[in-house]
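Tokens as discussed.
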């Protein structure tokens, strides 16, 4: 089935909490001293940095439907309701086993238990002399203790040695500790003697010594389920003898563009044609979110070939992402092809830009298909709001959403009543603390160029039509890989 949903579907209306935390941003230039700041006619004096006033609409909040849902109208659903439906439907791929280096950046899907002791033998923690603590307890610079050097132990040597009273062995970091020794005296605390050495300080027993199993004992957990695998975890996995590990795999995402007006990047657009930028931009965004993303490109216009392409991509994907112009006034060939593959619905979502959105589960395996607007700025905004959280959920991440901050608006911001507005902007640290944000560019700027200069999205709620200069707004920094 395909069509515009009446807003009654979805998996629930619970709002998903967004974390707010400090984010590294460039410093805004200090503002010149002057008369007291502007006043907001509705709220009185503007807040100091760090205070969060309620910025409400001049005309009052959007009335709720009679059933209490937060949809603005029967034909328009909220961002939360559309997002909830997507997150409830996306699958979490089964864990797979990968070589440890290929597992970097993924979540561990097993409790890795060590069968080895780390370290595997008593060893020196640094270069120096292995000795008995009781022999050197009274050593000082003024009255050093002399010991006879009876050997040397280097890293990799497997022949055990031993010492008795008054004796020492010169050791290298990582070398096997001789039997009888319970301390390593750093070389800089001695005269570096070869046959006899003068020890000028007496560290207590156990100093600069790594005992067998101090790091990890046999049977200890090395890496837990849900741990992100980075360089430190790869080091530990290798140390306990694991060259492969079970992980949550990257979801396979295929990106397609729909539109008879689209041409490839290498072509010169004729009048009325535009270059397909969405398949490049959305593929890059999906990779940045952690997916194995593939750009298929422009969908064919022939109905039979179109259906064949969609069916083949459903077979190779965990998620399919389609950008195009999807409307409620009849179906185009792409909408009809999607509708023929399963329950695909197109909806108006209370957001700007790009309210026209689509979602369904298609094909034999009911693969999630997310449709986003064809206009490039709207497509990337929709990706941030709906697709990126879905990819992170499929990866098993606990934090699905970008972290947000509260920032001072550098100028007046206007927003349509009843729609959540997403504006591209530049956020910087305020010299007095907190953040300040400015929308990017003038109205005459090319949208793509404006978007490329932005480092954040300014989010204005549905029941706010105006934020005065100096008011506080929610800002979503667009950090690569964040």
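Sequence:
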């Amino acid at each position: 089935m395909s069509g515009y949903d009446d807003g009654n579907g979805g998996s629930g209306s619970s709002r998903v909490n967004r974390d707010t935390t400090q984010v590294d941003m460039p410093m805004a230039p200090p503002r010149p001293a002057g008369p007291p700041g502007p006043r907001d006619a509705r709220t009185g004096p503007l807040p100091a940095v760090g205070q969060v006033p309620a910025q409400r609409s001049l005309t009052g909040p959007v009335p709720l439907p009679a059933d209490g849902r937060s949809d603005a109208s029967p034909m328009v659903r909220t961002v939360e309701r559309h997002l909830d439906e997507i997150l409830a439907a996306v699958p979490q791929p089964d864990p797979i086993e990968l070589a440890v280096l290929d597992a970097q950046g993924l979540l561990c899907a097993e409790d890795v238990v060590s069968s080895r002791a780390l370290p595997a033998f008593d060893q020196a923690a640094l270069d120096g002399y292995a000795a008995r603590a009781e022999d050197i307890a009274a050593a000082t610079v003024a009255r050093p203790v002399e010991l006879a050097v009876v050997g040397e132990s280097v890293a990799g040597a497997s022949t055990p040695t031993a010492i008795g009273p008054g004796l020492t062995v010169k050791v290298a970091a990582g070398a096997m500790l001789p039997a009888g020794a319970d301390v390593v005296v750093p070389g800089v605390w001695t005269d570096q003697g070869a046959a006899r050495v003068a020890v000028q300080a007496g560290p207590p027993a156990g100093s600069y010594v790594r005992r067998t199993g101090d790091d990890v004992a046999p049977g200890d957990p090395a890496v837990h389920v849900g741990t992100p695998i980075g360089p430190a975890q790869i080091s530990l996995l290798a140390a306990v003898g694991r060259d492969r590990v079970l992980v949550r795999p990257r979801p396979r995402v295929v990106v397609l563009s729909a539109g008879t007006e689209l041409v490839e990047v290498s072509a010169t657009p004729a009048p009325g044609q535009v270059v397909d930028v969405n398949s490049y931009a959305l593929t890059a965004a999906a990779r940045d979110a952690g997916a194995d993303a593939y750009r298929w490109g422009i969908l064919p216009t022939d109905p039979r070939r179109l259906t064949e392409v969609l069916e083949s991509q459903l077979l190779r994907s965990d998620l399919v992402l389609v950008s195009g112009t999807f409307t409620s006034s009849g179906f185009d060939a792409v909408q009809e092809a999607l509708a023929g593959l399963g329950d695909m619905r197109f909806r108006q979502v209370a957001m700007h830009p790009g309210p026209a959105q689509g979602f369904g589960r298609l094909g034999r395996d009911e693969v999630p298909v997310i449709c986003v607007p064809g206009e490039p700025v709207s497509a990337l905004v929709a990706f941030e709001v709906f697709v990126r959280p879905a990819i992170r959920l499929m990866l098993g991440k606990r934090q699905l959403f970008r972290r947000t901050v509260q920032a001072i608006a550098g100028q007046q911001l206007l927003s349509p009543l009843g729609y959540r507005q997403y504006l591209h902007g530049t956020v910087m640290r305020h010299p007095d603390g907190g953040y300040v944000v400015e929308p990017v560019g003038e109205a005459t700027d090319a949208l793509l160029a404006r978007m490329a200069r932005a480092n954040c999205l300014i989010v204005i709620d549905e029941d706010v039509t105006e934020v005065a200069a100096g008011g506080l707004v929610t800002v979503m920094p667009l950090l690569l890989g964040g």
